[in-house]
Amino acid sequence: MNKIKFNLNGQDVSVELDPSLRLLDVLRDHFQLTGTKEGCGEGECGACSVLINGRVVNSCCFPLANANGKKILTIEGLAKTKRYQILKDAFHIEGGSQCGICTPGMIMAAESLLSMNPHPSDEEIRIGLSGNLCRCTGYNMIIKAVQKAAELGAGLW
Amino acid sequence: MFDPNKSTPKVDHEEKCSGEAKYVADIILNNTLFAKTVRSSIAKGKIVSFSIPELPNGYYVVDHRDVVKENYVKMVFTDWPVFTSERVNYIGEPIMLIVGPDKLVIDEIISQIKITYEEEEGVFDLVNSVAHKSFKKGDFQEASKRAVRTIKETFETGYQEQAYIEPQGMLAYLEEGGKVTLIGSMQCPYYIKNAVINTLGYPEDKVRVIQPAVGGAFGGKEEFPSTTACQLATAVVKIKQPIKMIFEREEDMLVTTKRHPSSITLEAKIDENNKVLGIKAEVGLDAGAYIGLSAVVLSRAMLAVTDAYTIDNLDVSGNVYVTNTVPTGAFRGFGSPQMIFAIEMFMTHLAKDLGVDPFAFRLNHLVKQGDLTSTSGFFRDPIIMKDMIKKAVAMSDYHKKIKEYSKPGVYKGIGMSWFLHGCGFTGDGESTHIKSRVRLVKDEQDIVYLYIAAVDMGQGAKTSLKRVVAMVLDVPNEQVVFDYPDTDFAPDSGPTVASRTMMIVGGLLARAAQKLKDSWQKGQYQEIIEQYKQPDYIEWDESKLQGDAYPSYSWGVNVVEVEVSPITYEVQLKGIWSVYDIGKAIDERMVIGQADGGITQGVAYGYLENMRHEKGKLRQKNLTDYIIPTSMDMPPMETVIMDNPFLYGPYGAKGVGELTFVGGAPAVALAIEDAIKRKVNRIPATPEYIMELINNE
Amino acid sequence: MVKHIIPNNLQEALNTLNAGPCHIMAGGTDLMIQKRNTAGTPPKFMKDVLYIANLEELNYVKKDGKRNCVLIGASSKLEDISHHPDVPNLLKDIIREIGSPGIRHSATLAGNIANASPAGDSLVALYLYDAEVVLSSVNGERVLPISKFITGVRRIDLRTNELIKEIIIPLLPVTKYKWVKVGGRRADSISKVSFAGLYLVNFGLVSDIRFAFGSVSAMVARSVELENSLKNRPIEQIIADLPRILEESNKLIAPIDDQRSNKVYRRKVATNIIESFINGIQ
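ok -> structure tokens follow
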């Protein structure tokens, strides 16, 4: 059996599972990290977003094998950081979360965006979140939340 | 930024951001088995025979033979089977469940199941009516005699898929003593409980329904979860182990309920002063294979016939048609979006045919306080539509743009919709069917608990209802607790539908809280139960569809600006402006959230979301092919809420959940019509349709 | 039971391929979905799977000054390619409209090519630029023009012991280029029709002109003969020749009806686009 080794939320792990398993299933079923959600299973909705070496990726079409040697961050891992606190507060202030199912994915995508572009324009935020579908908010309040986070968290990203 | 005095901290915000909120798929119980549904592959016919391979130990079939008492899902009618026994009526109709511990083994078993059908010709046109309704106002025939002009048009609307980001799912298990417990993604715990009691023949205290976090619903989880619940309840009683069934997106999209496709024909009789004397309307809804809630959807559609206008003479009839397609059901708006699209387009088309300015023409028919409604009830409460329209026009620069965009060769357009939404259940539904009850409990620590069946599916009910109680009691928010509904503790305060949650349930809570406040005893356990009482002024005749259809109305104005490409016919949204009268916003941030989300769905219904079937087979079955807006599709949106407090709503609040959906489609369709200078009679107004309109002159 | 091989270097990968047929998985954004099985279970692979996404050896984008082309390694992610200064702007524009950031951080250009989807956006630019693919095996390397490598809908001329090692994109002098993607919405959409065109003007003569359509036939639709008939002619002449260009373009394409759109729309839009492109030459 292949041993896949990677860093998960700050801890080095090694798993002996079928390397073709979706990373999404490994996170939810094996590690019981249910913060990453399945919304569509085909890379469209972004509810399964995680960060691989700091960049947002859809874990529903990412094979476990490709995790080898990478740093993986799920919402549970990000939630321990100061940047997450800023994002969470900004989402609250601007009403960026309603039913919440897309929220962890949105926050992961926002983190990925801000770490590459700490002061994004409205347009750049929309592009950065274009892979995360939301059916409740119409996106405006989410865009404002990311703008607010960039403002509140100046210097953190 | 939202004024903290007008918006409450959202109680579930932390857990939703951190991923700790538990949706049904996240709940893990020991020894849980998986279930997968075996479904009909034909649209219409009989099951002649079937063979199932020998099942390994620990694997089960559950089908109609296992249904303990009633093999129908209790909704308004009794035609919807839990498991079909012989006849199949749509592609995807559930025949049996295969249950067991390993998903791959279940898949293998299913691949070896052979079903032999005697296939019949499916019916896909609107020809088989199973419910007919009609009502009149004034005297249409007499009005016709006075008319100088008759104009008739037909409008069509397609499916709309709720596309909540959390697919449907349910978990069933037995508690001690054999109590069937269900946890699932739902809007109506008591619809589920009552359906399961009916199917199992169990007493009230042997079925329990608990709501977890719900990832969006929009009506799609109103009645459909009852079917899943009855299937799993039947299975769990047989197998006596926890069973979990989570739909993946494709299955969800193919088999769960959607918005009714419709065909609406409107005929107007107009006098020499360009006044519409009367309208004759024929409404046809495609219910799919089973009636479900379709007759109620038809009612609401028909009652919305005159939208925000007053027309003195009406002749309205409607039919629910069954076809061999997936059953349709509740979706935000519940029939009124179809009708309001039709009537809004029609009013503008009438003006164009008459050669008059549509804005002035519509304004000339705008409803006023005291006018008779479509069903000859009264618009009792103040109506501030004139001010709302003025505001929307100013915000969007509507008149200037209409003029500018009318020039030839300009493919920009602007459209404005005016609309209302009747709040709560139609007519006397609240008092005859729902009989809503709420329960407040204060413990010895003076913490107040809300026990109601209202589901927070994202609209913020968990927070806003708490707020109402806290405001009445004049205590900090933290002193009031509202946990997810559990039918063991919460009385039936009614389903989370029909824009009734704040107005009706919130109203009951406010009354209960007032009683608690008046009788408050520090340090003592106290319980208040409050029952819904219909206000005296509501008079409704369900058989004739006459009287006050709703206790109150919320109002809205939407303006949408678009640019259409003459090369690709694609539509780009350039701006959206909205003004709403929902009585009073209990929580401003949440209301704006509903406004943004509602209009996004409504506009997308008008131009983007396309679902068709071919002989009963849906062609769009995933989020790749069924297109909903992304962040890049939406333009800046501006919303204004205007106060117009409703006497009988808590702090003046009326319904908001559906109102904000209803106006989007006509607004964008009118904008597209304005841009391409052709009449739009169908939604979604896709680029393909736009091309047809431009090139087939 | 299929084997899963995560090679440490290119040679190991080639040796594996030589030992038996494999699915070659790069980012997985196409393959994982095409082969997907019930949630929680592994995809349905019938052959062994070779994972090359993490081969650092193949993770490069570099300019080859001598041959005046840009070289893109097979495991380069789309997002990285879209930021590289030497990659033609046309291809960068196209990549930015593919999928979403999540997809672009994982997906590869090599994967797009191997998938050979009729709706593959990046393929249109690659055809236009006469890109070539370098196919590597234990026996050495083959270089094929992309138009020869892709032989049909999801069909490629790849031998069982080969993998795509690199994509060679010759650099072209360009006065203006145009890319039009007609999808269902502004992000995350599969093209109904797409078009890429470029031209080079020297002293009022169009010395180079290329255009191709995507999503309206089995493979990218381009006619080098049609282009050649327009080369080195004055702009006004080309514009005057529009009716013939439209006629020939219409013969090139064979749009279909499907769940996304219909053939009438696709043909009309393709025609509108090429008309607008030709009329816009200056």
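The CA atoms of residues 673 and 679 of chain B lie 6 Å apart.
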